[in-house]
Amino acid sequence: xxxxxxxxxxxxxxxxxxxxxxxxxxxxxxxxxxxxxxxxxxxxxxxxxxxxxxxxxxxxxxxxxxxxxxxxxxxxxxxxxxxxxxxxxxxxxxxxxxxxxxxxxxxxxxxxxxxxxxxxxxxxxxxxxxxxxxxxxxxxxxxxxxxxxxxxxxxxxxxxxxxxxxxxxxxxxxxxxxxxxxxxxxxxxxxxxxxxxxxxxxxxxxxxxxxxxxxxxxxxxxxxxxxxxxxxxxxxxxxxxxxxxxxxxxxxxxxxxxxxxxxxxxxxxxxxxxxxxxxxxxxxxxxxxxxxxxxxxxxxxxxxx
Length: 305
Prior knowledge:
This protein has 13 helices and 3 strands, in the order H-H-H-H-H-H-H-E-E-E-H-H-H-H-H-H. It has helices at about 5-20, 25-45, 55-65, 70-90, 115-125, 130-145, 150-155, 185-195, 220-230, 240-255, 260-265, 270-275, 290; strands at about 160-165, 165-170, 175-180. The chain has a 3-stranded antiparallel sheet, with no helix packed on it. Helix 6 packs across helix 10 (about 240-255) and helix 11 crosses helix 12. The radius of gyration is 26 Å and the shape is elongated. The protein starts with 5 loop residues before the first helix and ends in a 14-residue tail after the last helix.
């Protein structure tokens, strides 16, 4: 940090205020970000905060980008500058926040690779030992892939959310939606609800429960999926979001119905679905039952043995 001066003094005041609520990691990161800003302002011979404007900030962030700073770190730099500017506005050193006029750098989207449809089918069709835990885990696997649920959505399901061939889920922001449940998932859920009572604690409403009889937590679900993948010889890391991504990718490949996939995933914006599935689309086509590889009805709708 440069020797204390009018600019550095306000940065220290801001960081002292931030320390009351922020974590040590955030505080250290913001200190590094604002030290870089102070170095830049010194190079530009800026001596008062009132000289700070959008043009200076663009040059600062542009220089950081040229140095090879990653988009995520650039976004944090901008956030640190904006928080500091809010402080300077509150203390009378600025009359507006110039960071509001500077666009945030685009963040790359890191999407999981979908599991190959045939490999996933073989994985899901692998026989299990028939124990209540195995029956429960199979129902979770099938429901994740059948309906494209988020981890929090599946963990939050109650028994009365199951409704014949669909399930009611609460998405982000508490927004409810109804999603279809394929025939394989319905069979697996039927098997689970048949043995659930032996595991569930009295009065427990959760659809999926653990050994203690209470609602299964997020971490436990993640661990069970990873364990099953190892036991069944799937040489890929399996987690709930990857099953959701596989659901979206496989369904869109079959149907080309991007808006239907958007509704099923619970995305507010179509652009989110386009990036999420990273697949081209040209026209609308088949319905869910015709498109989803595990929702197609077998001849005579026979039950597999």
